[in-house]
Fold this protein.
Amino acid sequence: MRLGSALRTDRTDGPLLVPYVLVDRRRRAHLRPLVAALRAGGANALELGFPFSDPIADGPVLEAASGRAIAAGTTWGDLLDAVRVSSRILPTAVMTYANPVWSHGLSRAAAELHDAGASGLIIPDLSLEESAPWRHATRAAGLDLVLLAAPGVELERVRRIARESRGFLYLVSRYGTTGAGRAQGSAELAPLVRAARAGNPTLPVLVGFGVRDRSTANAARATGADGVIVGTALEEKIATGTPHAQISRWVRTLSGRPALHGGFE
Amino acid sequence: MGRRFGPYGGAYVPETLVPALEELDRAWQSSRHDRAFRTELDRMSRTLGGRPTPLYFARNLTRRAGGAEIWLKREDLVHGGAHKFNNALGQGLLARRMGKPRLIAETGAGQHGVATAMIGAALGLETEVYMGEVDMERQRPNVDRMRLLGAKVHPVRTGSRTLKDAINAALRDWIANVRTTHYLLGSAVGPHPFPSLVADFQGVIGREIRRQSVRSFGRLPDLAVACVGGGSNAIGTFHPLLHTKVAFLGVEAGGSRSGGVGAASLSRGKPGILHGSFSYVLQDRDGQVADTESISAGLDYPGVGPEHAWLHDRGRARYIAVRDRDALRAFHWLAEEEGILPALEPSHAIFAAVGEARTRPSSDRIVVTLSGRGDKDLGVVLGASG
């Protein structure tokens, strides 16, 4: 199923939750149970991160994790393998920077990702002006290209971004990189959500950057967005070997839905 | 000015930076036709920067080479000891025009950091500089200079701990503080409009060469030579001479090992997207950016300005790589023959120019941009010959 239709269907049941997991060759064996745990915790889709050597939109935690994954020899082939695993459990969007995709050729990369089972692509260093060839290549391959908007961006531009975005709109919560740090207040973010709705009424809007617990997730949803994306805080739990059952319960607390009783199995 | 040089350039950045890049583009465009701005830029270039810099006939080096005449464009005499002042002043004035009270910069060799610290002090702007730990070690005197000039220097401990990682750190700072901060990018790299506006402010080098060569030897040179890391002194040298018959040679850092990539993006890289622009990048099969290796911190960068990529593809400029040991030889030639200690960056260009001079008749004129002085490199040079 396309990313957008999956999320549009799910949002009728409650707020959306999309966790981010970085592909790391050393964690191959853990991916399937991890994604299953995320789904049991209420995740509606997955962002699968492919590490890049120069991740300028990432804070220290994801930057270090990317460096370790590259040092461990994580390749594009590992990404495709990971997509094959995760996309059977959750609709999967791949998130990476422009160069790894560009270096494989836009059309070829999009086709390979789609054939592996991916339904979306997110490129944080792709501005609206540069996105046209990427939109064409992903559309031809049947992938949703998710665009990003951020505080400080003019509302008319947010409307244009929402019109061109597929799958969902990724709304960056603040001036800053991924990880610790405070989101802009609802007063600043809510107009951006409304502008996105005006530009593309059916497109889900998800807020990311700085979502790390129940209160930050609630604050992000208070902007009127359809849900949240959680990355750095999850990476910290994975890196410290948190048991999957515990991750599942923690994800549930972020989802804005009632707690599960009993284990996730 | 357009966003692209042929297919190269553009602005591959997070949306958070788009408003700031648009604001910078507007400020720069309006300043270009603003007489008051240009007068102030010119006044400070002369009275603070020491411009114009001389064009010097390197008689002894020419005799040693045996062939074409070698002339040096003396950017090593600019305030601070390198061409970096030209760009730092221009962008500093733009920051003031935009009402941004804080400057951030990356630096490799430390010359751009020093230039930014000087301009920050002169214009009353708070200044913070990101510098890789490896570079802080090998360019220690410049770290001290920046601090004495009132700038805060942040060591960068990620990745290869050199220029590339310093740019990453500066970009992250800019994303977080974009409303109050101007990122004073030091080379002709990065997202639009940086490559064009850096070429504009560094173009003073080529404009002076045009005037001075006619005055000194009655015509334009046959060849202009400059070193290329990101490529700001080279684009400043080439750009104003693009529509003439002058040939161009850009000299990249070849590193220490034969068969290694050094930092020679145009000679040994392929097109890719790094730090906001599409240009040549040293990278692996998966698009991961390579670690570079050069004796010269200022050339130790895996990308290159997008205008150079276009000049390269069109064949309008030629680019070669010069190895560490040959740059060191050229350093000593210039010291012993002309009494000038060059920085290690332009030492690469000097070596290439001497090689070119040997293949050309004595009636030919070669201008080499001597982009900086070598005081900062004494430790590296003495260590290498010890």
Summary: Chain B touches chain A at residues 3, 10-16, 18-19, 158-159, 164, 168, 171-172, 175-179, 272-276, 278, 281, 283, 285-289 (CB under 8 Å). Chain B is about 45% helix and 20% strand. The mean pLDDT of chain B is 96.
